[in-house]
Structure formats: structure tokens, C-alpha cells
Design brief:
Blueprint lengths: L1 H13 L7 H14 L3 E5 L5 H9 L4 E6 L2 H13 L6 E5 L2 H4 L7 E6 L6 H11 E10 L18 H16 L3 E6 L5 E6 L2
Parallel strand pairs: 1-2, 1-4, 2-3, 4-5
Antiparallel strand pairs: 5-7, 6-7
């Protein structure tokens, strides 16, 4: 099954879909395998290949995704059907900035891979959704090496850089959280909610 997913990931990348890089993908699945979360929230579902992989790795998990693009959402649902995980996955269509604040219930694992300039904004609503002992797994947190860099950032990336720096500062200084930042590919943070 994972061979087929690797092929679909390659095709998605060729078709211009932002696909989780290889080491980050492996770290995501390793973390899912270790934690075996009951409920997963995915912000930025795209065509659903990460969702499918998480659900195949943890057979008892259920997943709620958020995707802003309708065609992409339909592709994700087709992938859910193709891999037999439709009964454990659902996707909300819309802007995560509007959907996250109205979500209820606790999640054991949140995979944050949506618009990079909004990570800090999302955080205040994501943390209350995360159960004690739950994991917030965020991709692209070092954003092309610009985050916390002394190098001059291109003006068009300043908003993302500033948001990501606030996000990382928040998750690494909050005493109720335990965060590890992995300097692989575009950067990954894994945050455990302690209380």
C-alpha cells in the first residue's frame, strides 16, 4: 500500500500539489505509529495522501481534515475510497481560519500543514482542541531557512517569517508544552501538550 502512496505522492508533486517532503513524511508516520492517536485533525488536507498514510499506519484512528479547495477535497475523498479509509475520515471544505474556531471535541494528534502565514493565528484555537498528552506536528516551521535567520528575508516572505517566529516562540516557551524542532528539510516541530 505504501508503495502505491509513494507513487501517488510523486505524481501529486509533479502536478504542482505541495507534498510533504520525504524525511518529514517518514517522521510523521513514525510519530503516528508511536502515539497511535484515536482522533487526528489535519489542517491542510490537500489530496489526502498524508491522511491515508496516517490512517493506514494507525488502524484505529479517525481523521478530520480541513481543505480550502473544492477540487482538491474531492481528490482526497477519492483517495480515501481507493485505500479503504473513507469510513474513518471526513473533510471540512473551507478556510481553516473559520473552521478551527468552531471545532469541538478533543484531538490526540494535530497535523498542521496549512497556510504558513497563519500558524500563529491558528495556535490559540488549536491548543484547546488538543488533549493532554496530545501532539501538534507542524511542517515547514523553518520556512526556507528564513526563520530566526540573520539573513535578509525577501519582502514577500516577511509575513510568513514573522508568523512562524511567533509560532515557534510560543510553542517553545510555553511551560505547558514540550517542543522539539527538527532541522530537516523545511523544518518540523513536534509539540506535546503536558497538561
Amino acid at each position: 500500500m505504501l508503495e502505491k502512496i509513494h507513487e501517488l505522492r510523486r505524481q501529486a508533486k509533479e502536478n504542482g500539489h505541495p507534498v510533504l517532503r520525504e524525511q518529514s513524511f517518514e517522521l510523521l508516520l513514525k510519530t503516528i505509529k508511536e502515539k497511535r492517536p484515536k482522533k487526528i485533525l489535519e489542517v491542510g488536507t490537500n489530496v489526502g495522501l498524508s491522511s491515508v498514510s496516517m490512517l493506514l499506519t494507525s488502524k484505529t484512528s479517525t481523521l478530520t481534515g480541513i481543505e480550502i479547495d473544492e477540487d482538491t477535497k474531492h481528490q482526497a475523498e477519492e483517495n480515501y475510497k481507493a485505500f479503504g479509509v473513507s469510513d474513518r475520515a471526513k473533510i471540512f471544505l473551507g478556510d481553516a481560519s473559520e473552521i478551527i474556531p468552531v471545532l469541538t471535541g478533543g484531538y490526540d494528534f494535530i497535523f498542521l500543514d496549512g497556510p504558513k502565514g497563519h500558524y500563529y493565528e491558528y495556535l490559540q484555537n488549536l491548543l484547546p482542541l488538543l488533549n493532554k498528552g496530545g501532539i501538534l506536528f507542524a511542517d515547514n516551521v523553518l520556512f526556507n531557512g528564513y526563520v530566526f535567520s540573520k539573513e535578509k528575508t525577501p519582502k514577500k516572505h516577511n509575513t510568513i517569517k514573522n508568523s512562524m517566529e511567533k509560532f515557534l516562540t510560543a510553542i517553545t516557551t510555553d511551560k505547558t508544552l514540550k517542543t522539539t524542532v527538527f532541522d530537516i528539510e523545511d523544518g518540523v516541530s513536534i509539540t506535546e501538550k503536558l497538561i
